[in-house]
Every structure is written in C-alpha cells, then in structure tokens.
Design goal:
Blueprint lengths: L7 H5 L25 H8 L2 H4 L18 E4 L2 H10 L2 E3 L5 E2 L5 E5 L6 E19 L2 E7 L8 E3 L5 E2 H5 L3 E2 L4 E3 L9 E2 L4 E14 L2 E10 L5 E4 L5 H10 L14 H23 L2 H4 L5 H6 L5 H10 L17 H4 L10 H12 L10 H17 L3 H4 L10 H9 L22 H6 L2 H4 L8 E7 L27 H4 L8 H4 L2 H5 L24 H12 L4 H4 L51 H5 L3 H4 L18 H14 L33 H4 L6 H6 L47 H11 L8 H5 L4
Parallel strand pairs: 2-14, 10-11
Antiparallel strand pairs: 1-4, 3-10, 4-9, 5-6, 5-7, 5-8, 5-12, 12-13, 12-14, 13-15
Helix pairs in contact: 2-13, 4-6, 7-10, 12-15, 13-25
The protein binds a DNA duplex (22 and 22 nucleotides) through strand 3, helix 6 and helix 7.
DNA sequence: TCAGCTCACACTTTTGAATAGC
DNA sequence: AGCTATTCAAAAGTGTGAGCTG
C-alpha cells in the first residue's frame, strides 16, 4: 500500500528560495497584505543555503507558472450568509460533515501535472468562545491544540486538467471532537474558532512531490465549532440550506410542528392505550376504529390496546404542508456584503500563519514554542521577521489581538487568553462583516491568502494528462530525492514499518494519516491508537500555561519522549497508499514507517529521536505550557532555537497592518513577490506555525541539500525542525505499490469502512 | 445549578446492489 | 453477453430534545 511517505517532497522536499515569493500579478490593489503563505514565509526565513534546491534534472520547460494558480470558493455566497451570522459547525464524536461544504474551483494548474489537494483546519485564534447575549465572545484561552490532520481530497492525485474541469468539494471531510478518533477525521475543539485552508500540492509521482504548493484561505469560511447550535439563525440557515435537514423545515415532516404533533399524537395514543388497558373494555371500545372493533371477537383489552397502538396516527390539524413556506433564500438572512477590513485580513493571515503544523499549539502555551520558531525562522531571513508588526507584549493572545480587530468572528477584541475573567462583548458578525471590505467585495470568494510558493526541483513532468498512478513514474527519472530508493515499493518494510498496525500496512485499515509534526502528541500513535495516545499524553503533560503563555520562550529545548506516539494518523478519505501521514518526529525505533523517512537520511543516522531529543531536555519554559505533549513542535522549535536565540522578539503577523485587498474580484489573490511585501522586509517576527507546516521548510530536511546551516543550527541528526504536513506514503510491503496510484486509491476506497469511502465514482464526476 | 456534551430519534438524501429492459 | 435505466433497501447525514456529566 502506498503511504504518504511515498511523497517525500511533501514533507521534506527542497524548496527553491527563488520560487518562494508572494506574487501579486494584479497589482498592489489585489495583494493581500497580510503575511503571505506561511510556507513561503517560512521558507524565506530559512537560510537560503538550506533552501537551495539540488539541481533539478530535466526541469520541464513548459512548467506552468505557479502564479497562475487561482482558487475560487464556488459557494462563497452561502458561506457569506453563514459568516454574516457567525458560522457554527457541529462536531460530534463520530464526525460531522461541514456545512456549508467547501466547493472550489481551481485554475491555473498545469493540465498535465498531477496535484494533490489537501484540506486542513487551523485555529483562527487563541481563544475559547461562548455564545452569550446573542453573540460569540471569547471567554478564555484556547485548549491545547490537537494534532492537526489533513483531509486529502479523494481524487488526489489528479491532473491539473482534472481539478480544473470540475468543482472540487471537500464535503466528505468530517469534523470531530473526539481526540481519540481513529477514523482520520479532523479533530477540533468545541467552541473554538477555526479557519479551513486548502492546499494544492504538485505531485510528480508517487515517489516525489512536484514543484509547487499553493495554499488558499477564504476568510468567510471561518467557523466556530459547537456540539449543538447556539445561534438559532445558524440553525435556520442550516435547515434551509442543507438537503439532509429538509425534514426540519416548516413544511418538512420533522418540523417543529410535525414533531409536536407527533409527540401529541404519541401521548394521545399512549393515553388512549392506557385508558383501554385500564378502563372498562366497554368504554374503550368506542375509541377503537370500526374495523377493529368489528373484527374483534374476543374483545380482550390487550388486543384492543395492541390494535389501537398500531393504528396510524391521526392527522394533526395543526400540522401539514405549508405551501406558503418561504423558500430557503427567502428565509435567509439578508446577505450582507462581507467586508473584511484590512485588519481582518491581516488577522486572517495571522490566523493562517497558525501552522497546520502543528504540534505547535496555538494555545498560549504554544507561544513560547512559536516564538522560538519565529526567531529561528527569522535568522535565515531577516526580511520576513522585520516586516511584521511588533508583537504585543502579551504574545500569549497573539491571535486575539489580530482577530479582535478584524476577524468577522471576533468583532470584539479577543480577550487575552489568560484573561478569561474578562469576557468580551458578543461579536457582532454582521457588523464585522459589513465593515470588512475584503468580504464585501466580490473578492470575498477569493482566498484571503494564496500561497504560491516554492518550487521543488522536479523531474520532467509526467506525460500522462490524467490521474496516472504516481508509481508509474520511473523512480530513476529523478535522482533528486534520495528517498525513492528508500521507500521504493521494493524496499522491504523494516521492522519498524511493520509495527504500525493499520495505517501503512493494510489497505483495509489503511487510511491516510496526516498530522503536523507539531500537532503530534508525544505519545505513540499507532494507527489503531494513534491519536488517542498522542492526545492523552499531551493532556497529561499539560502544564500551567498562564505563567508563560504571554512570554515568548527565548529558548526552547526540544525533547522527544522515547515513547513518542506514532506520527501517523489515519485518514478515512485518503487512499490506502496515502494513508499514512507519518510524523518525522517519531523515532525510528518506534517501528512506524514514518520513522524511516527516505529523505530523512539524517534520521536514519540518528538511532532514535528520543536520543536526539531527550525528553528531559524539554526544560524550556514552554514545558510549562499546556501543550508540552506536542513534542514535534517543540522539536522543531528546538532545531532553530540556537540560531534564533539571538533574534529579537517576534511580532505576530496578525498584528500586521491590514494589507489585504478587498477589491480583487479574482478568485485568488495574485501572487506577489514576497520581497515586495513591506511586512516581510522588516524584522517582524514570524509566526512559528507558519513555518512548521509548510513544505517549503522541508528542504532543510532534505539530506541532499548542502548543509550550510550556521553552527547554531541543529545537527541534521536532529529531527526535522519544520514539521510540515507529514504526508508520507508508507512503504508498501505489498507488491501493490506497482499498481497505479489511482488504482490503489480506488481499491482503498472500496475497502474503506466509510460509506463515503469509495471515491471511485467521485473521481469521475464533474461535480462532487 | 448550569453549560456543554452524548445519544436516540425521525426524517431525508445518498449510495449501491438487484432487477428489468433493450 | 453487455449496457442502460429503474427500483429498492441500507447506510449515512441532518437537527432536535431529553438526559447525562462535571
């Protein structure tokens, strides 16, 4: 079975610094001023030598310019309607789909190249919310960040022609609040605000990622997770817009009136039954329908009661179809122009900057780690760090500040996470949105952020224009990634690989596992127990945060517990071959396939991550953070800590002045060269998270890259400092690796336990 | 006491297998 | 035999509300 490890580039691919820039092809007016794609920034921040890609053999001359990639939120109007009120997303233990779903149109892709589309959801801020006074208000700090999971679109990988020829829907993605979820659903905290992100990653073949990644964020898709709807307006919108909830519409059979009527009838029937049973049979006989009474020969009360109970409920005059019922659109809240102020956009960027990566927790406690990362990142690229507004003294609430200013969800200043006692006024979504130029403009459908970014040295483009099996690519085609050999389908899975029960080995169980390293809990996450362990450990390790959350940690010592959880998480939606998203932070000894990262030769060199990062070494103040368990992030931070230690305090991107352009009507913001962005020219602190997840950071992980790191940089033996999405294809112990990628994927789908697991049909549909 | 969560429920849509027809 | 269209049952997606939990 293919695993994500088959895509070493995704996690480790080298990034060409020159390709890492934020482009604005439509002029400054359309340029989102907030921090550019996290990955780009991160990559930029990295020492160029680290980012310097190895020579790319046979670089395709016809490569499509990355700046042309655009993404449009097809159902933006619906999202805006919800956003106007304050979008709420139900999360359940078993997983709940998002509604509205993310329906996208992408353009600008190279029709002949293959791409993988990912969805991840990152915390929008550092606060926990409560619905009070008719609005949402931050009431405290966010809970420990959970392992980040990525939903890989079932069609992935597919050619650019494929993606561009249809609407791309992520409606199969499910959200859960079950930290022990083993279904691969995206785990979120209830009553927290989140921001979905879409990533387009080029995949040349199964063994190596292609050259580019583009990330898109649509501000109007932010939402607050709930276990039960708080705002009745949202409920109304959902019922009216979601086909599955049709029954709850006024004309539906499950409407309030109908339900009341049913309840009434039920009670009536029960009462009558009781009367029949308890009363004189003679009296009850009158209640019985004629047929029954006439056919009843024995006339026993039991029979009567039974017959009565079995009668269909009488029509309730109070209920019934109401033709006059307003249609969905009629009942919709007046659609307001979503107008995201610059501040909002900036906050969005900052939010975006929150890395999927994760492990780095967005919570106050993670601040320290983030700060560390920021510093580390900035070392290589002063320009990035300098441009961000100075971080507020209280960095613990970093998201808050930005959000409070502009975010539609946080019209009110987000209270300091540490200051839970000071609830903010309810957020007035409509007002916020109305004041948000970005959303008010047609560009609302445009992602607030477009990460057009780095280009991995890539082999010649595949000739196949259709979703070809990535494996079809000749491993020898590109010598850039050393990994191919390591992860070659023919490569026998080592002991460590076999260990992971489900994810990589069995196609049945196989689910794509994706989780950012940072998000990765310290515990071992075997496919079966993957998440659970990690979270549990993380929780256990939670330490008082308040004391340190506000202060960036000057130094973060990263330690990886020897018992580190498996780094892979199952993705129900992912094809078996992609099922394992492994976490680089896992020690090789963990026996997880992820441990053996092809491109992480240095890992192999290192006996165990634990050794490299002694658990005890995590002495940094961050250890007191609520999220100590997230070793990955800490590790990442540690990798840079030395180099970053000398750096000045970092500011949060969200604090940046609003640079977003509301005017753009284009589906995506034109790429802008990062250097052109003022923010990046400054020493503004870079948000660590931005770096953490982005593949652009992967280059440094690539052993093939020249080790130009300053002496301060962590030795290669250390675990990769930048946990990007650990999209790793597990080594396939089976010959199935030779099968076309897509074929495997479909097999997986069929074998998938989820009803939605089969994407076979979906892959061929024009619209999902 | 209460906010938040879980679960069962009824209804609906979606999915896929079975069947019929060509 | 192969393909398409139709039917039908099962599965899954909804919000609701009662009950539970801390």
């Amino acid at each position: 079975m293919l695993s994500v490890e088959m895509y070493p580039s995704l996690t480790l691919g080298p990034q060409r610094i020159g390709d890492c820039f934020y482009r604005d092809r439509q002029g400054p007016a359309h340029m989102p001023m907030y921090p550019p794609p996290t990955c780009d920034v991160a990559a930029k921040a990295l020492p160029q030598r680290l980012l310097a890609p190895p020579p790319v053999p046979n670089e395709p001359a016809t490569k499509t310019p990355k700046d042309d990639v655009r993404m449009e939120l097809e159902n933006a109007s619906l999202w805006k309607q919800f956003s106007t009120v304050g979008t709420e997303m139900i999360i359940t233990k078993k997983g709940r789909r998002m509604f509205p779903g993310l329906r996208l149109k992408v353009s600008g892709l190279n029709p002949s190249l293959r791409y993988i589309l990912l969805l991840d959801i990152i915390p929008a801020d550092n606060s926990r919310y409560r619905f009070q006074g008719g609005g949402w208000q931050a009431v405290g700090g966010a809970e420990a960040r959970l392992p980040d999971r990525v939903f890989i679109h079932p069609d992935s990988p597919a050619t650019g022609a494929h993606w561009q020829s249809r609407t791309i829907s992520f409606h199969y993605a499910k959200l859960t609040n079950n930290t022990l979820d083993t279904q691969g659903h995206i785990i979120l905290h209830s009553l927290h605000r989140y921001q979905p992100r879409i990533h387009v990653i080029e995949a040349r073949d199964v063994l190596r990622w292609g050259g580019g990644q583009h990330s898109f964020v649509f501000p109007e898709t932010q939402f607050i997770t709930v276990t039960a709807y708080q705002n009745s307006k949202i409920t109304e919108l959902k019922i009216n817009a979601n086909p599955f909830a049709k029954g709850f519409r006024e004309e539906g059979m499950n409407s309030k009136k109908q339900r009341d009527a049913r309840q009434k009838r039920k009670m009536s029937t029960l009462t009558e039954t009781l009367d029949i049973v308890n009363c004189d049979p003679c009296d009850s006989a009158e209640l019985l329908p004629q047929p029954i009474t006439t056919t009843t020969t024995t006339d026993t009360t039991d029979l009567q009661a039974l017959a009565l109970a079995s009668l269909p409920p009488l029509p309730d005059p109070t209920c019934g179809y109401r033709p006059e019922e307003a249609s969905y659109h009629d009942t919709l809240v007046p659609e307001q122009q979503l107008d995201l102020g610059q501040a909002f956009m900036a906050s969005q960027m900052s939010d975006i900057s929150i890395s999927m990566a994760n492990g780095m927790q967005s919570t106050p406690g993670s601040e320290v780690a983030n700060s560390m990362i920021e510093r580390s990142v900035t070392i290589g690229e002063p320009a990035y760090t300098s441009t961000f507004p100075t971080a507020q003294p209280d960095s613990s609430s970093f998201p808050s500040a930005a959000l409070s200013q502009s975010s539609p969800f946080s019209s009110l200043p987000v209270p300091n996470s540490s200051d839970a006692s000071n609830p903010q006024p309810p957020i007035d979504y409509p007002a916020i949105l109305a004041s948000s130029p970005a959303l008010s403009s047609p560009s609302s459908t445009t992602p607030s952020l477009q990460q057009t970014s780095f280009t991995f040295p890539t082999p010649p483009p595949s000739n196949s224009s259709s979703p070809q099996p990535l494996l079809s690519s000749s491993p020898s085609a590109n010598t850039y990634h050393p990994i191919p050999e390591i992860i070659s389908p023919h490569t026998p899975a080592d002991a460590s690989f076999s260990a992971p029960p489900s994810t990589c080995q069995s196609g049945l169980q196989g689910q794509i596992l994706a989780q950012s390293l940072l998000a990765q809990p310290s515990g071992n996450n075997a496919p079966g127990d993957q998440n659970s362990a990690a979270f549990i450990d993380s929780n256990i390790l939670l330490a008082p945060v308040a004391a340190h959350q506000n202060q960036p940690a000057p130094i973060m010592h990263c330690s990886l517990p020897s018992h580190a959880a498996p780094t892979s998480f199952a993705f129900a939606s992912v094809p078996p071959h992609m099922q394992n998203l492994s976490f680089p932070n896992v020690p090789p000894s963990s026996a997880h396939p992820a441990l053996h990262l092809p491109n992480l030769s240095h890992q192999a060199q290192t006996p165990t991550l634990a050794a490299a990062f002694p658990h005890s070494s995590f002495t940094h103040p961050s250890s007191s953070l609520p999220h100590p368990p997230f070793q990955p992030s800490s590790c990442l931070a540690s990798s840079f800590q030395q180099s970053a230690s000398s750096l000045p305090p970092t500011a949060h991107p969200q604090n940046m002045p609003n640079h977003s352009t509301s005017s753009s009507t284009s589906s995506s913001y034109p790429p802008v060269e990062i250097g052109a962005i003022p923010q990046f020219n400054h020493n503004a602190p870079y948000r660590p998270e931005m770096v953490l997840h982005h593949p652009s950071l992967l280059p440094q992980l690539d052993p093939s890259l020249p080790s130009n790191l300053p002496t301060s940089n962590p030795p290669q033996t250390l675990y990769p400092a930048f946990p990007s999405y650990p999209l790793r294809l597990c080594q396939d112990p089976h010959p199935s690796l030779s099968l076309p990628f897509r074929h495997l994927y479909r097999q997986h789908q069929h074998g998938h336990a989820h009803p939605q697991g089969s994407y076979l049909d979906m892959s061929t549909r024009a619209v999902f």
